[in-house]
Amino acid sequence: MFTTWQKEESFFQMTKKSKSKKKRRNHSSNMNSLNSTLSPNTTFVRPPFFFINGFYDIPHAKYYYVFLCFVFVITVLGNSFVMFIIYTERSFHTPKYLAIFNLAVADLGESTALIPNLIATFLFDSQYISYDACLANMFFVFFFSSLQALTLTVLAYDRLVAICLPLRYHAIITMPAMVVMLTVVWAYNSLFIISTLTLITRLSFCKSIVVQSYFCDHGPIYKLACNDNLANSIMAKLYMVLFLYLPFILTVLSYVFIAFALFKVASWEGRLKAIKTCSAHLMLVALYFLPIMGTYIAALTFTLHPNARIINTSLANAIPPMMNPIIYMLNTEEVKEFSKKLFKRKKNNHK
Question: What is the number of other CB atoms lying within 10 angstroms of the CB of residue 127?
Answer without folding.
Answer: 21
